[in-house]
Amino acid sequence: MRSSTRQLGLPCPRVAFMLAGVLLAAGLAFPLSSAAQDQATETASASAQPLEVEVFHLIFRVVEPGLYEVAQVMSVVNTSDTPYQAGPEVEGRGAAGLVIPVPVHAVQINALPPPQGGLNPAALVFEPTRLLHLEPVAPGIQQIGISYEVVAGPEGVDVSYTLPYPTQRVSLLVGGPAGAAVQVEAPQLVRQQPMELGAQGVFAQWSADSLPAGATVSFRIGPTPAPLSSKSLALISFSFALVVAIAVSIYGGRRRQDLALERQQVIEHIAHLDIASGTGQIDSSEYLHQRGAALEQLAALDEVSGLAEPDPSSGAGKQGDREAARGRSKR
Prior knowledge:
- Helix 3 runs antiparallel to helix 4 (256-278).
- By secondary structure, the protein is of the alpha+beta class.
- 32% of the residues lie in helices and 32% in strands.
């Protein structure tokens, strides 16, 4: 079992080295041209905040649905000519130079090694939704990287990041061994063409551009819903056909003989459900749902045809169960 305790680790885990190398090989860590860097400098010079982020990369490697290894790399630009260290104050330790956002679900947080990391683990202070680096940010471009795990339940998890600086692009990539087993809901982000990351395979990609400081980027990641089995689809189709038949019977003036035939079909359907449940072909929740719907249909037929009382738990309902039992004994 992997620990879900939030802690700041000093050594880098396997995913840190692997994905940091993938980033560098793919050219993701140095995404902008010199013209774009000049534009960033001009934009920042008009404000007192000299830090900007060119690209904020989030790479989710899906180990299995509910367990995600994450590499997070920021290309940070100090547009001034002097080192910057005027961020949030940490009591007894002075001001931070850099703020690094992390999701509240992040555990086993580690600093990536240079050149992708650029962090001194001893100078990191952990807070619930961010890391504070208590060293100055040098002028120019800094590659800042961390890795961590996100552990979620079977329903999925909502992940969010509050951007501390103006950010030209946020890039989300999701893939890995079980990448096809998860789905991402990211209404703030735009779906892009998939990206191949070396031996790690193809990663789905989303992005958003030109985000201000303080903006929150959120998305949901979780298991892809399992498709209905052929047995389930057949049961649903059969139930739908019965509903249509009953509607026609009620409003179309069908003969009593037709209603009796449809009633027998419902009884046989109940018998099939009982057999399927007894042999493990359908789970208990689906069985109870389908059987309950069938009993309601049986009661509706009985009420229209006058064959029995409308309560399926007495009269025709018990008769239907007895006939269903006889149907099972024949099989």
